[in-house]
Amino acid sequence: MRIAVGVTGASGAIYGYTLIKALSKLGVEVHAVYTDMGRKVLEYECGITTEDIKPHAVVYDNSDLFAALASGSFKTGGMVVVPCSMHTLGALATASGRDLLTRAADVTLKEGRKLVVVPRETPMTAIHLSNMLTLARTGAVVMPAAPGFYHKPETLDELVNCMVGKILDIFDIKHSLYTR
Ligand SMILES: Cc1cc2nc3c(=O)[nH]c(=O)nc-3n(C[C@H](O)[C@H](O)[C@H](O)COP(=O)(O)O)c2cc1C
Fold it and tell me: I need a labelling partner for 100 at 20 to 30 A (CA). Which of 39, 79, 150, 167 fits?
């Protein structure tokens, strides 16, 4: 199985990093693309760079529209955009395709594959909400970065793993990231 992961400059870089590591550990071929701000926030929040992602994923340049991910003929099981900034959310809702991340997400939708979008912002404007509705109506799964507390997490990892586990559930990937 092959899954694409797009990471933007919204807060919560740890969600993307944890997802990429979990998928790779589960034997999934991961194809990752970071926006410029995604790379900066990864460094700022997690203290790592995309070099640290390379052992777990094929990492693309977001400006490379010749990359495999830009084409529908490159088969994937779907794509996750996590965390998703309001900037990228808007680009996805308008099918912008201006860079590799938005093009790959648009390809995922047009090919009828699973697109999971994990927006992170609060509070939200009517524009943000409307963009989410547009994506949901187009077939994307919109899954705000809103981890639950009912499993009584004691560490940050447990909180993050719960959210990442919910993403894996969408793809029917078996995992033990949280207790049901
Ligand atoms: C530390 C930091 C945290 C941010 N958190 C968010 C956020 O949670 N949600 C959001 O929409 N934008 C957030 N931003 C702003 C985005 O990075 C900015 O809008 C950027 O243009 C997004 O670009 P991208 O979608 O190409 O990654 C944050 C910026 C910084 C520096």
Answer: 167
